[in-house]
Amino acid sequence: EGAGWEWRPSARDRLLYSRVRPQLLQGGLGAMSLLPGQAPTKRLRLDETSKPLDYVGGIGRGAKVPMQTRADMGLQPSAPPKRGTDAMFGNAPPGYVPGRGRGATGFIGGVSRDEVDRDDDKADLGDSNYDEFSGYGGSLFSNMEYDEEDKEADVVYDRVDVKMDDRRRKQREKKMREQIRELRAEKPTIQQQFADLKRELATVSNEEWEGIPEAQEHLKVKQRKPSSFTPTPDAILAGMGGGHSRSIGGAATPLGGTGTPMGGFGTPMGLRTPMGLRTPMGLRTPMGLRTPTGMRSSLGMATPMGMSTPMSGMGTPMGLGTPMGGMATPMGMATPMGMRTPMGMHTPMGMHTPMGMRTPGMRTPGMRTPGTPMTPHTPHSHGGSLNDLGEARGTVLAVKLDRIMDSVTGQTVMDPKGYLTDLNALQVQSDADISDIKKARTLLKSVITSNPKHGPGWIAAARLEEVAGKVQSARQLIAQGCKHCPNNEDVWLEAARLEKPQSAKAVVAKAVKSLPHSVRLWIDAANREVDVQAKARVLRKALEFIPNSVRLWKEAVSLEDEVEARVMLSRAVECVPHSVEMWLALAKLSSYKEAQKVLNEARKHIPTSPVIWVTAAKLEETQGNEKMVELILTRAIDSLAANGVTPDRDMWLKQAEEAEKTGFIKTCQAIVKVTIKVGVDEDVKGMKQNWIQDADAAINRNSIEVARAIYNNAVMHLKNKKKLWLRLAELETKYGTSESLDNVLQRAVTYCPHAEILWLMAAKQKWLRGDVASARRILAEAFSHSKESEAIHLAAVKLESENNEIQRSRLLLARARQQCNTPKVWMQSVQLEREQGLFQQALHLCEEGLKEHPNFAKMWMIGGQIYMEKSPPELHEAAKFFERGLQKCPRSVPLWLCSVECEIRQQKYTKARSLLEKARLRNPGSDLLWIKGVEVEMLDGSERLAHHLMSKALQECATSGILWAKAIELEPKQGQNAKSVDALKKCENDAHVIIAVAKLFWRDNKMAKARKWFNRAVTLNPRLGDAWGAYLAFELEHGTAHEQREVIRKCVDAEPNQGNDWNRIVKRVPNWRGKWAVKLKRFVEETYAAEFNAKPLNREVELLLQGEDPYAAMAAAAEQEAAEKEEGGEVKDEDGGVKREYFEPASSFQGARPGFAFKMGPRGLGYYRDAKQDMLKAEKKEKMEKQEPTVKEEEGKDDDKDKKK
User: What predicted TM-score, i.e. pTM, was given to this entire model?
Assistant: First the structure.
């Protein structure tokens, strides 16, 4: 207290107190001291029984007295009261561990986790102990036996896995490709990011390429220059100046003129030379020395492998020269790592150097070894060049390694067969090739010496000599090969090939005597005969020795006439009864009855061949027995299954396709019918998917009959699948006749009466052929099955309105409004009255329809347009109607545009601007609203505001092609090209931008480029009518009649329905029933009037634009030209020249005619006008027109100069 602090109990003190406090309250401990080291004043009674008198706690364990225990301190009772199972059953037996019987671990006093001997912990989980089948070595079933049942189960599971993987592989792969494509679009690869830059590299010139700076030029850290220089010795400079140097005996060094430095000085004992060559007491050389490959020996004699021979001696087999003259190592005897020479000191690698002699191939100028006189220094006595040591060391090492690689048994490690392939492409062109040939010759000599029975070695050696130009040596070698390998047909064939033609027959004769059962030798012998009879004799002789060779029988039969061939085939099927080709060939040459017998015999001998059954079916089809065809193939399936043949669907489909190609249609259909369920899934969905895939694959291979048979049989098994019927109808539409299509559609509507599209297709086919009554009957039958079908009601209305049955159309629409009551039915009702000019009835129907469907925006648009079409137009009422519609449909952009157009016609530009502002707030990001705003500003004369508005539009809709096209149009002429480049960067493949660029080329008189870009635009979006109109206007001004016809034909096929200008003209009421060619003409007349009236139209083009059939238009134009000819006037073409007839019939080619091509065309065989020649003529005309203004300008300049003079 005096120090100013107080004692606070710690956490341990509080814990002790909490345990002792209950005992204190009960008075069990008495006045117990909690200070450490003091004994309790009263001992605790630990049990009911009293303790012994002389008991001292802990003395039995050697404790010092007094001892204090936890029980003395009162921390825990020494013997807790018994409770639970101990109180009920007594104490546990000795050795009891709680939970061990149940396999538990982790109990206090029980089994520890670490004490349990777990096999999993001892298992080896490394890669070396892993097996794909059984897993790791410590797996559950690793010790069980793997019997046949397990193997069979694994095979079944593998097949199931393969089948499940094949079921939806195409969909899975397609989905994967789409995911990859999306990923590539989001995160393109480096290659894709730099693709445009790579394309631009094609235009880089050589000067620009060389002007590209190096990468190091842009580094901030300068390159470190080499700071150390090695001075070149005078001896090297002198040697290089001398041109070359020689070693002992005149052997040229590889680097001419390079000698050993420090020439002329003696080398003291133990000193190293500059190249590190130590010369102690006798000049030892490491590993022996040799000159590089191709160098000459000391006396000028070339050794086989280029080893220099120091003294005139004989060469060893591997090219090592002997130091002493006349000593040679016998052929084939191996020396220990080198050649042993007499009387010499042992060199490190086993070479014995003669006592006191210089080292072969190496000379140290001016150096003296013990026992040799001093070598005087001469100008040309320099030792080997600087490369001598490295070359010699590497060459000797290569030779010794080659010797080591050839095993002691004499078998070479070289692959002679692979070497033969290399020799076929070898051509000797340089000295290096010659040295390679020398090395190869030595190696192959070792091969044929060590193993003379090895045929490929002899062939390789002979071909090597042939490549080297030594044909005679090659023949001698291969002759030796024939002696050593008389049973190798390849050696005999090679010998026959190398011999002269007059001697080759003798070689082949010897060959067939040695190998009478070699098919290749007999065929080679037959091929060397010129006379057919001689060939036949050789082959018949061969068949005496080898009667079971199918190849020999084929060759022999091919040389005989039909009668002899049949006789030989009769014998062939006896000798080779398991050859299907022999049986089929015999059946082909036999009559119908005989062919049946032959095929029955073939089936008995080869019961597992499906080709024999298919041939039998084809045989029956040739006789008109169509019922037998299917019966034979049905039996074939059963017979093959009984003989254990696994049915293969792909094989049967291949047989069907072959039957179709050879003209056996019934056999093709029967094959598909009997195998329609072979190899397909059992479930309906998988079955349908398999059949569709097979049919598509057959169509891709141009097997239409196979695809038709697959679909016909598929719809018989799955009669209520609409998708199969639609695919079959599509197939008949493309490749079938109108009768076959009608048959398919009638069957389809019978089995799928609730499929609206099938009824509509059937009715449309009848209507297109002019059979209106049948079309009405089909639609009436469709009504009975689908009374509430909107599509069927509208199809019936269209059928009647197209045939001008207006009253019947009204009745049908009235019934449709009662039964269907859909917005489209009400709209068609209004449009029918609008087309007839009955505006009041149309507005009445419009109001009633809007009561039923107030959110149908098209109905509001039609009602307002009817007010605008009245005479005079009721624009105020139309504006009110549009305003009502916008309250119901504020998200409809076309309705906003109609309202703005109504205000523009009233010249209320301020109201139009406000409407557009509201529309853009309700529909952000709509490029059509921005386009309309720009048009409003242009009509109001505010060109500056139009440009400002266009800039804002491009900021909000940066990828809108129609906005960029309008921006290019608004730009001044000098800025349009730059604007087009920006547009192409933002939307490269937008048809509107492409059309704008094409118009720029058109304006600049770049006709070829303009035509290319117009074609690209209509290819990118064939439904864009604005593109087709601009394309036709261009061709009418600059194109030929053929190009104009092609544009019209393609436009009619595309049936365009997009484009602001296109829809504004085409969707007028008078143009509703017009044909597509007529609509195109009216669009061009109104939009491109100057180009349309620039020159008179071709007669055929004019007929096409009037909606005539292309072939009818051609025929009408030809008839008109013929009529003009008969009248005496010559028909003029576009250039003013005499125009020949479009088609001139001719039964055969009668020579070339200018401007015409001989071919089979739509009007038969004859001469047709050649469009390519017309195009060339037009291009020449364009060039002439371009050149004329230039000439006139030059003439005008000359006149001005003359006037000035």
Answer: 0.55
